[in-house]
Amino acid sequence: FPDPSFFKAKADDQRRIVRSGEDARILKKAMAAFSSLQHVQILRLQDEADRILLDYLHESDTPLLHLVDLQWTPACVHATKTMAEALVYARSPFSRFSGPMMNPQSALVIKDKVPKMVPILASRLTCLELHFDDSQELNERIQQASGLFKTVFSAAKNLQALHVGFPSRSPLDLGLEEIFNYTSWEKLRAFGIQAWRLNAEEIINIARRHSKTLRGLRLRDVQLREGSMWKDVLVMLRTSMEQLDWVSLRRVDYSKHFDELWANSMEVGDVLLASASDSDDEDSFPAHFSVPGSVVDSDEDDSDELSLADTDHGPDANEIALSPNTTASLPFCTCSRSSDPASIDDLGDNGMFVVYQQRKMWEKWVIGQCPEHNSS
Question: Pick from 194, 320, 307, 316: which is nearest to 261 by CA?
Fold first, then answer.
């Protein structure tokens, strides 16, 4: 049985550090010392003692989780605010920011408490990854932060890679432009979104704005609304994108079918959901899209089962043309089968649901790969 006094002492130490400002002072000193810092990432920390406690709470025959306050929001808010202040204080040269487990509340705090820092920090970015992991009142909280998103994206004129995602189980129900505000980035080479309910035209419009520069496109867990068809998106990507080397359509579907699947699935507690999606071994946009030296993995284990794990891997920023299953190094096939399917009607899009085999074929078809000779 975990010793309660240990966790009480640990919590008391953390409160003392925050109240005294010791963490902010040390962080500013550290950021000033990192004169060549490139990548900043905010992650949730769970040490061995925390793991033992959580395991005990989960395995207990008596419900105990309500006795422990396991809120990530206050920690995320404080970490985001303190890090922003330290980066500005140190005039850090960083150009990449990753927040794969951000809380929407942290965006609101930045908006309200350190608004002058936002354009300064955003102007330095070449790569930005934001994934919001809290599904409570998600639409309302993200909408409240729309002004902050506009400020960030307007100031981030040097972006080359951008990803904004939400929980797979709770797709955002807001329009793309409520977040991106019709912004265009002249240098954007890779763009990704995750867990969004959209109309086909929204995807088409943002892709078209970057048709001359975009080399990678990730549309993970995107659910099309009723009246939209995936084939319209696919045809536009195949015919209008001038440099597209790879596309990822992991778990794309139709909104109605997605809702039916989740309505018939077993509900899982938020703590278990978080533990299922926070593994360091799973794919995150920054780890494989923006960090030099990362390994480009395969997407072979992908499936259409309801899953909270994000295991497909994209390229890193220094090798933006590479993809796990649509590599630019493969020659554009000119054999008689290179245009299979021959027409949009052969894509098998029924407007109701999408299966794994379809998505894998669509990914290759969009960039003109032959289903026979480029079968990897």
Answer: 307
Give φ, ψ of 30 to 5 degrees.
-65, -45
b/e map 79-116, b = 16+ CB within 10 Å = bbbbbbbbbbebebebbbbbbbbbbbbbbbbbbeebee
Task: Give strand ranges (E) for the chain.
Answer: 39-41, 96-102, 127-132, 161-165, 190-198, 216-224, 246-248, 253-254
Q: What's the predicted TM-score (pTM) here?
A: 0.78
Number of other CB atoms surrounding residue 340 within 10 Å = 16
Q: Each residue of 168-187: pLDDT tens digit?
A: 999 999 999 999 999 999 99
Question: d(Cα 131, Cα 322) in Å, to the nearest integer?
Answer: 22
- How far apart CA 142 and CA 368 sit, in angstroms, is 37
Please check whether residue 273 is in contact with residue 101, taking contact to mean a CB–CB distance below 8 angstroms: no
pLDDT tops 70 at residue 361? yes
Distance from C-alpha of 248 to C-alpha of 251, rounded to nearest angstrom:
9
Q: 369 falls in which pLDDT band (50, 70, 90)?
A: low
Cα(195)–Cα(132) distance, integer angstroms: 10
Rounded to whole angstroms, how far apart are CA atoms 128 and 95? Answer: 9
Determine which helix (DSSP H) or strand (DSSP E) holds 20, and give its type and residue range.
helix 4-20
Is residue 124 helix, strand or coil?
coil
Looking at residue 112, its pLDDT comes to 76
Q: How far apart are CA 189 and CA 321, in angstroms?
A: 9
| Token pair 């440099």 in the structure block, residue | 243
**Residue partners of 257: CB distance under 8 A and separation at least 6:** 352, 353, 354
Spatial CB neighbours of 336, under 8 Å, sequence gap ≥ 6: none
Amino acid code (one letter) for 320: I
Phi and psi based region of residue 221 (left: phi greater than 0; alpha: psi -120 to 50; beta: remaining): left
SS3 97: strand
Report the C-alpha gap between 298 and 48 in whole angstroms: 30
